[in-house]
Amino acid sequence: GHAVNKILKDIIVKSKTLDGFDAPYVPGWDCHGMPIEVQIEKQHGKNLPAGETQRLCRAYAAEQVERQKKDFQRLGVLGDWDNPYLTMAFRNEADEIRALGRLLERGYVYRGLKPVNWCFDCGSALAEAEVEYEDRKDPAVDVGFPFAEPEKIAKAFGLPALPDKPGFAVIWTTTPWTLPANQALNAHPEFSYHLVDTEKGLLILAADLQEACLARYGLTGKTLASCKGAALERIAFRHPFYDRLSPVYLGEYVTLDTGTGMVHAAPAYGVEDFQSCRRYGLKDDQILTPVMGDGKYVSTLPLFGGQMIWKANPQIVAHMQERGVLFAHKVEPHSYMHCWRHKTPIILRATTQWFAGMEAVPGYNGVKPQETLRETALRAVEATQFFPSWGKARLHAMIANRPDWTLSRQRQWGVPMPFFVHKETGALHPRTPELLEQVAQRVEREGIEAWQALDAAELLGNDAAQYEKIRDTLDVWFDSGTTHLTVLRGSHAAEGAFPADLYLEGSDQHRGWFHSSLLTGCMTDGRAPYEALLTHGFVVDGEGKKMSKSKGNVIVPQQVMGELGADILRLWVASTDYSGELSISKEILKRVVESYRRIRNTLRFLLANIADFDPAKHALPPEQWLEIDRYALELARARQQKVTEGYDRYQFHTVIQELTGFCSEDLGAFYLDILKDRLYTTGADSRPRRAAQNALWHITHALLKMMAPVLSFTAE
Prior knowledge:
Elements: H1 2-18, E1 28-29, H2 34-44, H3 50-74, E2 85-86, H4 90-105, E3 109-119, E4 124-125, E5 131-146, H5 150-156, E6 167-173, E7 184-187, E8 192-198, E9 201-206, H6 210-217, E10 221-228, E11 236-238, E12 245-250, E13 262-265, H7 271-279, H8 309-323, E14 326-339, E15 347-356, H9 373-382, E16 385-387, H10 391-401, E17 405-406, E18 408-409, E19 420-422, H11 432-446, H12 449-453, H13 456-460, E20 467-469, E21 473-474, H14 476-481, H15 483-491, E22 500-506, H16 513-525, E23 530-536, E24 539-541, H17 557-564, H18 566-575, E25 582-584, H19 586-609, H20 615-618, H21 627-648, H22 652-681, H23 687-707, H24 712-715
Parallel strand pairs: 1-2, 6-9, 7-12, 16-23, 22-23, 24-25
Antiparallel strand pairs: 3-4, 3-15, 5-6, 5-14, 7-13, 8-9, 8-10, 11-12, 15-17, 18-21, 19-20
């Protein structure tokens, strides 16, 4: 995949250069982030001092850059290899802090408590792009919340009183571990709910799901009364195993797909739950957050304190069984969020983080954006060209539905968020923009380590005692997402320009680099930092299966280059329609080798037959050529036009079709076949032979230019 990406970029840079554009390629590396920090933890253990972690990470990243650089050069990638950009270069780290300052001053950045994607192994919040979905088995349970206010329930259902028996509002969940943090129930205002009399007591169930629920519980039931969800608003029910109440809030997000039509809300562990409870007036300090960053409950939690949440699941189920509030229980496979690095399940967890707001934001010092970030970004998507065109709908949908961007991470190897916040009020220091610039200047001289070593009193003086230094680092997607500021208009402003003509990456980057770059560009410039986006698919084996070491179907670029040469790899990339998956196998490479030989053998024939041709001495005006020579040159011109169009549209597989068609059909099967007699039998310096050589000389030049962006070594 890495090779595909670099080769595609290189073909574009070379074809644009041949088109007369100044298209320098500045190679670059995103150097911060979790993968490197995880490697350092594996090699040197956890809990190293922050400065030491940063030193080791910097050295590790530098070593990887040098190794990859050699591989990319071996691929034939033309670039300013002596002057690449590195996000860990001191100037780039400093400019990233300045970029954060710009977003803050424009009113997009705020601090708040919110459920964010949280990985216990990373010990940090995750970006949307770092979440993948895998199947996982979890207990699916139907749980009864006992009636606490029977008179209000009777009134809601239009009854004078309830029968004298226990009653429950029943919810369904696949995350029993969230029940200790339950603070409310959610009902849909428009759904019909029934009060059902069963052998186990009175149950409140959605009318449409009643039959399915009773079958699941093995109960028979008689409907006593009906009401809309809106009538149940604010009626309180008892928690299934703690001595507290859960009121009913109304939520449009409740569905009738599965479950009971009523949902339990743990605001710390679900976005909709959080929004619903906040809408009903729950304050940040009232939200229960019993799960710690390592996945264990706080030790003070009754019944399950100190336990890992996944291990607590069956114990919570067993406890509810004992209390008689469990109506059904079965283990079900379902699609669940996992960390893309550790492949372990993650949770949504409410923590205090720094965000870039997609909708209305609190603003900074009274400054608020004129339109929401979501509106600006959706406009920018419409103004962008996409190759292939389906990328537009994909990115549009992601922007339309995404939550606020969590900018902060709880790690060491990343650019710091060098904020000072008041210990009591949590407010940013009044001189924050000025302080950010002072920190940026230090980082420009000494790297991010300068923030680590900084004593607050150096910048704050007497205020230092009232302020705390924030330890968070910036999301690594902010590193790559701000390269239009730190690189295009910073370290490499002379080689680049804003906006970039093209960003090119794999299709996963609609939620990664394309996405973060779009958001930062919209916040700083009100537009995308690129004119166009090009997306390529992933590499699979000959049967369309993902490559994995365990299957033994991995093909390593270095091996192909060693055995067949870099041009075979380049030709494979160019021959494949990269808009879908790119298949590679030994069989496929054999076919690529055949195409390559056809082109190479054509060139050998051309070179052999113009070996004694000197254009300064032997050039003839075209009217002195034979008609077939002029016709052959016309065939070359027509092919060249189609090849140029293919390069312009980034459709390289059509370029290769034209190129191989030219060599095998126009030249091999027609012109060169007829020409052999004249080249081999007429006098060495005769007009018929020189006329043929004139045509061949021009055809050779045309062929070399057509193939040079792809078959760079062969063309050379």
